[in-house]
Hints:
The chain is of the alpha/beta class. The protein folds into 3 domains: about 1-15 and about 190-230 and about 250-265, no CATH class; about 25-175, Aspartate Aminotransferase, domain 2 (3-Layer(aba) Sandwich); about 270-380, Aspartate Aminotransferase, domain 1 (Alpha-Beta Complex), CATH 3.90.1150.10. It is about 40% helix and about 15% strand. The protein has helices at about 1-5, 15-20, 45-55, 75-80, 95-100, 120-130, 165, 190-205, 210-230, 240-245, 255-265, 270-285, 315-325, 345-355, 365-380; strands at about 35-40, 60-65, 80-85, 110, 135-140, 145, 150, 160, 175, 290-295, 305-310, 330, 355-360. The protein has a 7-stranded mixed β-sheet, sandwiched between helices. It has a 4-stranded antiparallel β-sheet with strand order 10-11-13-12. Belongs to the DegT/DnrJ/EryC1 family. It comes from Microvirga brassicacearum. InterPro entries: DegT/StrS_aminotransferase, PyrdxlP-dep_Trfase, PyrdxlP-dep_Trfase_major, PyrdxlP-dep_Trfase_small. It holds the Pfam family DegT_DnrJ_EryC1.
Amino acid sequence: xxxxxxxxxxxxxxxxxxxxxxxxxxxxxxxxxxxxxxxxxxxxxxxxxxxxxxxxxxxxxxxxxxxxxxxxxxxxxxxxxxxxxxxxxxxxxxxxxxxxxxxxxxxxxxxxxxxxxxxxxxxxxxxxxxxxxxxxxxxxxxxxxxxxxxxxxxxxxxxxxxxxxxxxxxxxxxxxxxxxxxxxxxxxxxxxxxxxxxxxxxxxxxxxxxxxxxxxxxxxxxxxxxxxxxxxxxxxxxxxxxxxxxxxxxxxxxxxxxxxxxxxxxxxxxxxxxxxxxxxxxxxxxxxxxxxxxxxxxxxxxxxxxxxxxxxxxxxxxxxxxxxxxxxxxxxxxxxxxxxxxxxxxxxxxxxxxxxxxxxxxxxxxxxxxxxxxxxxxxxx
Length: 381
Ligand SMILES: Cc1ncc(COP(=O)(O)O)c(C=O)c1O
């Protein structure tokens, strides 16, 4: 009953209908229209272009964080690179000794600004600079996160972005280069991909609609569709692999013009402020819950993707939240086979226990209150 009475709390933002069909020509925030930036369909495709510009060749080595989603490894593997891994500290920055070891025979390194919370890369930058290898900043989670007053990532040799994770867009990512230039010209992304992603966003909007009848209609449509696809296909792919793999057909695919229009119409300051406000509200509400350890507090430059918390009984909480139609992000369920997990028990633990609570801009005060209520009831049970 609860499920029907309350609108679901979605883990990702959804667009209003007017945003989906807006034709804004406003400029994009810096640096996304600067000459050093190129727009791509996703961060993975941007990363592929970075690999080409940085002239990384098959057989060379690249140092990467062991705490990873998995999808960011695939462009390097596709390019024939060897991977070495480094540990990440409790402050979510590269652990210096481990980083030093990982870059020993490497031709490049990448470090991640997790969950839109700027990482301290000063030690990693110095070490990469001393070894004269480029440092790529993975800013896939960190759109609108800042260093001083500017977008984070711009001091790295290259930075990749994934707009669609923060803003509800059919696709979109970027590559920023401190020096050098992309030679490839972006091509249009496959129209079916953009149609599918747009339908998915529309569905998310309808499932979160304030009018219950709209939600019920979309729920029914989804159930029918699932029934049809589950009988039509049995897949041999591992779970979540579709989110991880690097699709060959997307190499060189630029950001769709429809996504660019929606992005232009976005109120960037509102997105950042809403995310920061919701983070603070959840942080205050969850303080003192037994078995909850926030992974970070909110620094000045942060534009959080989630409120990341290590939860002792993460699986139990995810189940309880799902039963009440509250969506959270499991960070991250996929253990990529390239990472020597036995050497990285902390990162493994994080992948098992971390939950990303939604803080996005589409949440109303009522949604946040319901999320808090469900978590608190569960914690008392
Ligand atoms: C840390 C990190 N980097 C890069 C990516 C790839 O982003 P995209 O899906 O836009 O290719 C992801 C995807 O989830 C990620 O979590």
